[in-house]
TrEMBL record:
InterPro entries named in the record: Glyas_Bleomycin-R_OHBP_Dase, Glyoxalase-like_dom, Glyoxalase_1_CS, MMCE/EMCE_epimerase, VOC_core
GO BP terms, alphabetized: L-methylmalonyl-CoA metabolic process
Name this protein carries in UniProt: VOC domain-containing protein
A GO term for molecular function: lactoylglutathione lyase activity
Annotated organism of origin: marine sediment metagenome
Length: 89
């Protein structure tokens, strides 16, 4: 049984614009913001209830997030990571 979703990741072209939308317009609290050099990205974590929204802006062309920005259906980078409790059916 899925008990909750830990986080969802979205690649963004412009971190400042994304934060204006998610933090200011939607009111999601910013939990943490910083650089992830190994992933070639600037990242921000916002709280959504008991879960998180991770925004990632690529800072170099070989960042794993760069390819998601070019996708026509959006910049989702992380499938929702769910917590589960295992029960016998």
């Amino acid at each position: 049984m899925i008990t909750d979703v830990h986080h969802v990741g979205i690649a963004v072209r412009d971190m400042e614009a994304a934060l204006r939308f998610y933090a200011e317009a939607l009111g999601l609290p910013l939990v943490k913001r910083g650089e992830a050099p190994a992933r070639g990205a600037q990242v921000a974590l916002l709280a959504v209830g008991g879960s998180y929204l991770e925004l990632a802006q690529p800072t170099r062309d070989d960042s794993p997030f760069a390819e998601h920005i070019e996708e026509p259906r959006g910049g989702f980078t992380t499938w929702p990571c769910a917590r589960t409790t295992w029960r016998r059916w």
